Amino acid sequence: MLDFEEVQKHNTKDDCWVVIHGKAYDVSKFIDEHPGGSAIILKYAGKDATKVFDPVHPPDTLEKYLGKEFHLGEVKMPEKTPKKEYDDDPDEPPSQEELQRRLNIANMPDLAQIYNLNDFEFVARYTMNKIAWAYYLSGCDDEITLRENHLAFHRVFFKPKVLVDVTNVDLRTKMLGTEVELPFYITATALGKLGHPEGERVLARSAGKQGVIQMIPTLASCLFDEIVDESLPDQTQWFQLYVNKDRKVCREIVEHAERRGMKGLFITVDAPQLGRREKDMRSKNFEDLSHVQGDDEEADRSQGAARAILSFIDTALQWSDLEWFRSITKMPLVLKGVQRIDDALKADEMGIDGIVLSNHGGRQLEFSPPPLELLIELMPILKKRGLKMEVYLDGGVRRATDVLKALCLGAKGVGIGRPFLYAMSTYGDEGVYKAIQVLRDEMIMCMRLMGATKISDLDESMIDVRRREVVEDKLFGKVYEELESPAFKLKL
Amino acid sequence: MLDFEEVQKHNTKDDCWVVIHGKAYDVSKFIDEHPGGSAIILKYAGKDATKVFDPVHPPDTLEKYLGKEFHLGEVKMPEKTPKKEYDDDPDEPPSQEELQRRLNIANMPDLAQIYNLNDFEFVARYTMNKIAWAYYLSGCDDEITLRENHLAFHRVFFKPKVLVDVTNVDLRTKMLGTEVELPFYITATALGKLGHPEGERVLARSAGKQGVIQMIPTLASCLFDEIVDESLPDQTQWFQLYVNKDRKVCREIVEHAERRGMKGLFITVDAPQLGRREKDMRSKNFEDLSHVQGDDEEADRSQGAARAILSFIDTALQWSDLEWFRSITKMPLVLKGVQRIDDALKADEMGIDGIVLSNHGGRQLEFSPPPLELLIELMPILKKRGLKMEVYLDGGVRRATDVLKALCLGAKGVGIGRPFLYAMSTYGDEGVYKAIQVLRDEMIMCMRLMGATKISDLDESMIDVRRREVVEDKLFGKVYEELESPAFKLKL
Amino acid sequence: MLDFEEVQKHNTKDDCWVVIHGKAYDVSKFIDEHPGGSAIILKYAGKDATKVFDPVHPPDTLEKYLGKEFHLGEVKMPEKTPKKEYDDDPDEPPSQEELQRRLNIANMPDLAQIYNLNDFEFVARYTMNKIAWAYYLSGCDDEITLRENHLAFHRVFFKPKVLVDVTNVDLRTKMLGTEVELPFYITATALGKLGHPEGERVLARSAGKQGVIQMIPTLASCLFDEIVDESLPDQTQWFQLYVNKDRKVCREIVEHAERRGMKGLFITVDAPQLGRREKDMRSKNFEDLSHVQGDDEEADRSQGAARAILSFIDTALQWSDLEWFRSITKMPLVLKGVQRIDDALKADEMGIDGIVLSNHGGRQLEFSPPPLELLIELMPILKKRGLKMEVYLDGGVRRATDVLKALCLGAKGVGIGRPFLYAMSTYGDEGVYKAIQVLRDEMIMCMRLMGATKISDLDESMIDVRRREVVEDKLFGKVYEELESPAFKLKL
Amino acid sequence: MLDFEEVQKHNTKDDCWVVIHGKAYDVSKFIDEHPGGSAIILKYAGKDATKVFDPVHPPDTLEKYLGKEFHLGEVKMPEKTPKKEYDDDPDEPPSQEELQRRLNIANMPDLAQIYNLNDFEFVARYTMNKIAWAYYLSGCDDEITLRENHLAFHRVFFKPKVLVDVTNVDLRTKMLGTEVELPFYITATALGKLGHPEGERVLARSAGKQGVIQMIPTLASCLFDEIVDESLPDQTQWFQLYVNKDRKVCREIVEHAERRGMKGLFITVDAPQLGRREKDMRSKNFEDLSHVQGDDEEADRSQGAARAILSFIDTALQWSDLEWFRSITKMPLVLKGVQRIDDALKADEMGIDGIVLSNHGGRQLEFSPPPLELLIELMPILKKRGLKMEVYLDGGVRRATDVLKALCLGAKGVGIGRPFLYAMSTYGDEGVYKAIQVLRDEMIMCMRLMGATKISDLDESMIDVRRREVVEDKLFGKVYEELESPAFKLKL
Fold it and tell me: Within this chain, do residues C195 and C317 fall inside the same structural domain, yes or no?
């Protein structure tokens, strides 16, 4: 049992110990190769780093990445004074901004005052810590794609039927062979603990309770097994995969996922390199944290970051690799991030089980087409060829009308990401439950008003896609946080 | 004769009396089934509830809904000190917002300063009580449909003729066989007493004086007969019907309407369920009042609200039911809320006398097509088939040019709703009279400047519908109150 | 010689004298028939009314409209204290707004700081008196047409030629047979004295100096002869005619105009009734002044205003009347205010010499097509039929590029109105001269950069009209004063 | 050796000496012919004018333009007190605005906080001196073309390919026969010293270090040879030529450029006259400095400015002159400023080596087509005819996506101007280096995400140009400084 006073002495770059969850580690050798940069480690040299370690690392990180020889064992930590709500460093008093945020948290609206998904986003914007908020909301470059994903839905109008018996509305449908209660799913998003201490487990629980599918991300902050363990016996989950260069590792992950009951393997194909997300990059202490997901460009240049977490992703992944995946798993195979008609057709020809039209929520390539626009163009072609695979879509969804439009156009289901993160980050389990509930209520109402009583009633005859002008929605327009430049401050 | 002191003792949920118009009622048994929720009743337990009862209940509500055994008889009310302008509860001093509103009322512009319908809306926005204002103006979801209804008129331009003798302009036309002075009508809107103590009777009087048709709503706050009684001998009125599940009740209503001289039966077909109107939902004390119209979703879930006023609406109403209506009345039959070409054609084929292209003023299904857009597409098809039924339209009309565009495109007449509510809520009878006058003056001027002297001069050769870009009008843009989220307050 | 003290006694409605230019008039009998209303006369009963009379009445008004028996002769006015800059009524101290305006005038930018026509408008907005400003700038209804007139130019792009010898640029062209220095003219606008004490004479002088045609309005505040007298010997002027119901009067006016050398008769065909110009109507003291031009609707209703100046306009003017004009004058005949292809073709067929595509500067019918859009559509048709008449256009022109676009599209010339009024109202003669100079400089530069050296080089091959989206210009966007409602003040 | 006290005596218009770089000159005879006006010279009569002379004159100006007889020789200048950071004239204390600017400079963001080219522009806006900033950013007229150049890129979307091996990305390409590292070049812009004391030399150095081509402008503030001397041995530079009326001078310049190793001759064809740049014209002390580039309109009118620097430009330059250029140089010949399909085709037919689709950065003819739009239309025609010449484009480029779109559409390379000026003016060499680096990083990322690994992979199949609506980018929208009128100040 180490003494904490001993630990505190090892507080230099060359002799650097840190405490995580009551255990000390010697990270002196590792410090230069830390994908998140050395600065953040040095800041906690000789200190307890648990608070900053947790949100951005899965619990098994040190086991996996740090040699056993650097595990120094348990530390006898000093008696803590009863935990204060905010555990500020006495040398670093909280900023005015942070104080305002705490005040905001104290004055959060009651969950009963939340009427739609934008409301969650509002509350999140003013109560989440800045780094987490910036990480979740950030899009690439000028965020044109981010906004277009959403606005594309506003170019589509309904052709509602009247005088239909709409007493009973049934929202159930099938996705990849699974019966689900609602025609949307919680899509994979990274670093859930940035928003909530229990991270992706929160999403798993609420999804389970309402019969909604959750797609578990490779880059979860919880362990994959922790998330699966959180699910109900008959709860359907899918697995999102970043393909590892090391195919052996990759195979292990896939086989493990299948063993744990995953009902779909979603291979991300739109992220051989991370997009430039400037809000995220600008957020305070960016250097300290944001490299957790790595940046393989940087990685290529600095040997020290060669082991960056994301650098495992195979930039050479090709169509021909897909056969191999077929050979190692029986899970339905879905390509997540298809952005072009040709590629969709090729996937169909190759017998892939499904595709997700997605541009990664506007976080990767600026001016990638909004998924809804792509869907409008793709489906008639696919139908003419005799649709075999299932088509999904994610990006920009905020209302039940958005979901219904995609379904009318031929999508099997719709992925929703950020809104659930915001619901989780603000109101936890209850927030996510309510978010699903809000969508469900909106959906029943809209189905009735469209003259549709079951998902199969929704088809292209219910929809008008001829309009080209966008009508902006005021709530989204207000919650959207515009990009800023550091020079802004010069004006003050 | 009961003593008021006695009444005051019955102020608990289990023993709950209230006074309405000087009569006491025991509502203990009813409290859980009150469509507007129990909270509002409890607030007035043992008190005089007339002030809050009146605006949202037709006068015969208690007669109809409360068993005779709970009618306790007249109450000797204490001498009132002379009525103060605002009868504030001493325990609940008026908010800053409310004080500002009262100041606004004291400084209302003279009616002579009102030049157009938007002006009424402005004055209403700053002088009406918040709940009433929110109820009237609210649209569904993000209010995109609400705004599009209006903006659609801005895509249409005229092709004015010059060198035509326009000395005499005649605005008379025929609707459903009735000669009218002006080619628009006051359409049905619920809860008129929220804006004016005399509610729909105000509209009836002004309509009568200027030869304009009023459509009487099922959900009026005045009794149907009160409104009819207010009309002039030869005044034309129509009746808007929410179809009751109980066809016997329904038949009685229809037959009564016909007996009282209604010249048209407008069956609402766009509201099997109420739309989500978030402004209304957010307005203070929403829980207390807004359920008056019910929310059958909620209703389905909570047995207590099973008798919610709106729950009588038949969600199973179908095309085949229309024959039955034919069999019980000789009034012309019109479908209000048609939103799709197919349905319009079907109505025509079935020999329905008319349809109203309408999306319920943007209050029901978001992304329902703007009625004017639908009209542009529908009329050429109808004309080719030999138009039999009459086509009306409502939603977004604010100027005579809007009305004239619809007429050029083939509409028989145009319904106007909210603007008359705002005129009524601000300036009462004089306001509504002036609103009609303003439209009349604008219309005469526009007809002259278009080179048209009678309604039949207006046809599609006078109109250009090729433009797709919207030009926003500044007054509407300013009077439109944007949606807000509760989290807004967090920023302060 | 009357004593002013005597005049002062006649200060009631029944016994009402006023002094104009040192002469007393008994207006008791006339007061109810004053087209501008009785209020303004009563305000000056027994007083010197010259100051308010002048800007809105041609000098011969009393001679023409008031019987000789009411001319009371000269008045011995009291010695005036040396004239103060602002002659405020001691009982009515100037408003805060007016004081600001005076400060603005004291701080007016130097004319050298004026770089374009928008600059004049800016200065005018902040230095002109409110009534004059409102009268000049006001458009009809929501001013959509006013703004569209201007914005329509922004949908047209050039196809500039390079490597052309552009050393010498010649801007001369011919309009209705007259050689002119510049391809635009100062179009007719009413009430010039509202902006400058010398009114239309200022425009006449500057036009003459630079070889630009001025179109003299029927409703000038100067006498027609005063304006003509101001012109140079060989200066070309045109005459704009509101056609009088009394054809004898009309004939006298036309014959007089021809005798005084007018080179074109522009018959206004877009104003059988004045449009609703709400800014003008709302401007302070509207009742007092704005009816000077009358409002024949009102006129029809109130016998008292039967002699309203504008009521002389013939609302029955028709195509068949044009022959008569041909018979009484040899001046080229032009229809001002054509707004529709059919009418343009009919004018051409009838052998009319020219038309002005115009919607009266957006002051008459809202949603009349922007003249430039009409030109784009009309010219190919006219050319195919073998263009005989000349086509002009006015409305929304602010830059030389606007003029050049119209010329490329086939217009013979372009009318510019408000900008010259603003230049005149702010900097007088020098302002108007500079305004013409600015346009000339811009035009030479643009011609060079387009690779054109003479007006006949400009044709449709230089222009691209396929674009539909408007690009807003920031200066116009800022100088444009948005419509406001009286209820705005309620918010304060 | 002259005494400075002697110089100080010659401080009148008729007897006017100035000191430049320690040498005295008698400019009395020259003062009226100074292209920049006499005011600025008089301000420095009898004084040291080096500070204001330097940024706007190449060092050899006096040698070239002032007769030897007026060179008075070296001056013994008084001992200077140690240079202060800002050398204010004691009689003219710095304005509030200027003090703010200095504060801004003191608080400039660290270069590490700069993430994109807009960031440089922001910093420049708040730290550059007003005259320099206005000169660089100004566009012509209402700056619609300036903004459209940029916004045009937002109408184009990508069609990204997935599942392509993008491990290695190669950005190298060939322009006019030279292999370059990156597919863009630093285009020619005038008066570099306004932004940085070393002017165009800064650009030369950074371009050289990263294998980017620099186009050297005729109107550089550095001497042509100074710039060339700054380049690395194998660095490629091009030369931009304003064609001199005096063909002998012109020939000397061209031959000198070729001798110094220029690899392309870019003849500017879009500037026979300078455009009206109102921001520049309005910027303080405009009269003093901005005429440096002359204004040949003015020049034509005032004999005094006959020798204005720009008056040398041949307004008669024609297609037939191009043969002559072929005859005097072997450098590839490129036309800079082509704005029309016809002219592009003509250039191709004449065997010109290349064209730059450009409207001079929106500084010349307002409503010249955005280069990207022109490219979209031109390339299919050129390809059908068998493309011979190379097509370049400049104007509005701010992101790597902009560059890649142009390349997909068939451009050989893209010119970038202002962003490098802003980078240079704020952070000097490091700024320009970083600006190139930012573009390079963005470009590698985008290529990967598009599924392209080399420039030749980019073709029209990767691009969607059907969209017509513009999506605005927030950073550009914020950094863009709107036009203002002097009357703005009246409101205060």
Answer: yes
Q: In whole angstroms, give the CA distance from residue A180 to residue A463.
A: 24
Quote the minimal CA–CA distance from B264 to chain A in Å: 19
Q: What residues of chain A, 314 to 373, have a C-beta less than 8 Å from chain D?
A: 315-319, 321-322, 335, 337-343, 359, 364-369
CA gap C277, C290 in Å, rounded: 10
Phi, psi dihedrals of residue D425, rounded to the nearest 5°: -75, -20
Domain range spanning residue B190?
Answer: 118-273+310-479
Query: Which of these is catalytic: A360, A422, A433, A457?
Result: A360
A270 tagged catalytic: yes
Tell me how far apart the alpha carbons of residues C321 and C15 are, in angstroms, rounded to a whole number: 44
CA distances from B128 to B125, B138, B196 (A): 6, 14, 10
Structure tokens belonging to residue D411:
């451009």
Statement to judge: residues D71 and D212 lie in one domain: no
C184-233: per-residue pLDDT in tens? 999 999 889 999 999 999 999 999 999 999 999 998 989 999 999 999 99
Q: Tell whether C473 is within 8 A of chain D (Cβ).
A: yes
Per the domain annotation, does D401 fall within a domain? Answer: yes
Instruction: Mark yes or no for CB contact A142/D474 under 8 Å.
Output: yes
A131 shares a domain with A61: no
Contact D435, D120 (CB under 8 A): yes
ipTM for the complex?
A: 0.90
Same domain, C142 and C53: no
pLDDT string in tens for chain D (492-residue length)? 889 999 999 999 999 999 998 999 999 988 887 877 788 888 899 999 888 888 888 888 888 778 888 899 999 988 776 667 787 877 778 888 889 999 999 989 999 889 999 999 999 999 998 889 999 999 999 999 999 999 999 999 999 999 999 999 999 999 999 999 999 999 999 889 999 999 999 999 999 999 999 999 998 989 999 999 999 999 999 999 999 999 999 999 999 999 999 999 999 999 998 888 998 888 754 344 333 333 334 433 332 332 344 567 899 999 999 999 999 999 999 999 999 999 999 999 999 999 999 999 999 999 999 999 999 999 999 999 998 899 999 999 999 999 999 999 999 999 999 999 999 999 999 999 999 999 999 999 999 999 999 999 999 999 999 988 888 888 888 888 888 887 767 765
Min Cα separation B52/chain C (Å): 26
Partners of chain D (3+ Cβ pairs below 8 A): A, C
Do B453 and B447 touch, CB atoms closer than 8 A?
A: yes
Is the CB of B483 less than 8 angstroms away from the CB of A474?
yes
Spell out which residues of chain D touch residue A359, defining contact as CB-CB under 8 Å: 160
- A445–B319 CB contact, under 8 Å: no
Rounded CA-CA distance D148/D337 in Å is 16
Active site (catalytic) residues of B: 242, 270, 360
Same domain, A67 and A128: no
Please give the full DSSP string across D138-152, using - where no structure is assigned. Answer: --STTSHHHHHHHHG
Question: How many domains is chain B partitioned into structurally?
Answer: 2
Cα of A465 to nearest chain B Cα, Å: 11
Tokens standing for A220?
């979860």
Q: Is C116 on the interface with D (CB under 8 A)?
A: yes
Residues B133 and B44 reside in one and the same domain: no
Residues 6+ apart with CB under 8 A from D220: D58, D190, D191, D192, D199, D200, D227
Kindly state whether residues D129 and D17 are assigned to the same domain. no
**Pick from B276, B335, B367: which is nearest to A445 by CB?**
B276
pLDDT per residue over B45-65, tens digit each? 999 988 888 888 888 888 877
Q: Does B466 touch chain A (CB under 8 A)?
A: no
Catalytic residue among A242, A422, A427, A480: A242
Nearest C-alpha of chain C: how many angstroms from D152?
Answer: 11
